[in-house]
């Protein structure tokens, strides 16, 4: 979860006095990065995933499963193990990396080294995820398992839901009615984040998820498990004074959100401009993938009427005061702020001609003096706004030892603000003293129960990113419509019930212009395509979507297929007839998930169609082809409703078992034909099974 620094963390009453200092020097540090690396070119594709786990303690005698607060010990063991693997294997295979996370029952794992653009690496993703799960599992006790559930269904219920048990009346950081202090990673950063968010906000966070209503739900639903009359912390009165809504599941602590697990992907881009294009291109994809990966319908022992974690996390770290939330006139605070610091992206940042100013239609409070400073330094409007918008936030955790830094060497202050702006996408500048280039992180997806599914979504996104960049695909819609899609994506069964705003015409006039033989900065020659092929896929074209497959046959001749996915793409040339486009409101419409993923006849090949067109340019062997086909089928079948999301599957499982105990390890879901395709054999290959 970003930066972990060691030192003495400041109470909010002291930390707030350094907010200006951290912001000012954070920008100085960013300007230094900019000066050094803005012209950096030609980075190859490197990419990697992050998978988060909950460690579950099984009590087979009592048929119970609780969260095991064993993170510290397990991480120490895993560290020793991977160090040992390092010495044994030398440099040939890099062992995976395990990271701490917010919850003391959580683990995060990443591959030991990023994947390259080689298509061979696409097959490593799933086996690497399996290895990581196996390593985690084999360093746990026999009755403990690492599971990839997005939300733990019984977190915060009365009685025991952790091993060991702790009493929530001692939750000195969160003051929660439900979660004990010990739910949180003991590293100073995490309790301080929790406490300082509460102190800055001047109340506890308040999350209210609508309860799922069926004929067994008492109405009105007033939660009998909330200790309404507790009187331990001053904030205990909040629930009874209106913070907890009727007919809702009320949650009052950072742990409910930051204790969720997700699946994230990071891609290194060719240069800064392409990372900005990629960032923008993936913004409208965020809510689509959130709906497709929906996996969290159960909260604090209840069934919610939503399927996703997103708004829970947004609420769980919402440090805005009442003034900033627009509930009181501004007196102490600088400005109203429409969103939590964990929320969807507010601004497209690419300077490509495709990015029309009209698309940036969200309110965008910025720190004006920092914006002016970046503009004066020569940074363009959009990037300056992006940073100045993140920098309206206060730093929440400041370590006294790290207040004074050398801004030419450190980016700690920049990262302090950046890493506590948790958005659907993150634009990651290169870190100091490392060979790493400009990166983009895709952050909206919920973690899936099996590594097969997690690998499928990871591989899909990396292929989609290549398809978009190589074919100059234009996915822009107004960013307010992306936000509306985020809202819809979290609704119960959004995959089947909701429609989503999506661009009507994704092929650009530039897609149809020959870009023959364009040579990229790393010297790789990119493919070209004839105008008839791509326009044939457009609604007013006269060809068919099969025209897309001509991507592999520029000028009618087969292009030599590649074993390496390219990373450098020439900027899309503007259309010949100028930029004057349609009215923006005519550029998008509402579509079903199935239409977005699998297409609408000749009008649009769907995201999978784009990926397949791109795959045609790659030289895949049979097993690569088969594996990728099974990944795409999973996604296609999620989108058409013939396989359930984990959220739907879990909801149905619970509803059909009135006296349930929800325990599903990766192995437990092996025979679930409504969740996984018939040919799913994944777990049988799992070394842990
Ligand atoms: P964070 O938690 O800050 O998002 P992590 O270190 O947990 O970051 O995960 C970063 C991911 O990026 C890992 O999957 C890692 O393999 C991958 N990665 C590492 N180096 C690069 C690189 N140069 N380009 C792209 N991805 C990288
Ligand atoms: Mg994480
Ligand atoms: Mg991480
Ligand atoms: Mg991450």
Walk me through the structure.
- By secondary structure, the protein is of the alpha+beta class.
- It has a domain at 166-196 and 205-241.
- Helix content is 32%, strand content 11%.
- It has 22 helices and 18 strands.
- The chain has helices at 12-15, 19-37, 71-89, 124-138, 189-201, 237-243, 254-258, 272-282, 285-292, 310-316, 368-376, 381-390, 412-418, 451-470, 479-489, 494-497, 531-535, 593-598, 606-615, 622-639, 646-656, 682-685; strands spanning 46-59, 64-68, 97-99, 106-110, 115-116, 144-147, 162-163, 207-210, 248-251, 263-268, 298-299, 302-303, 342-343, 422-423, 425-428, 439-442, 499-503, 588-592.
- Strands 1, 2, 3, 4, 5, 6, 7, 10, 15 and 16 form a ten-stranded mixed β-sheet that branches.
- Strand 1 and strand 2 form a beta hairpin.
- Helix 4 packs antiparallel against helix 14, helix 14 (451-470) crosses helix 19 (606-615) and helix 14 (451-470) crosses helix 20.
- The longest helix has 20 residues, at 451-470.
- The protein is globular, with a radius of gyration of 25 Å.
- Residues 512-547, 660-665 and 684-689 have low confidence and may be disordered.
- The structure holds adenosine-5'-diphosphate and magnesium ion (3 copies).
- The site of one magnesium ion (MG) has 3 residues, from loops.
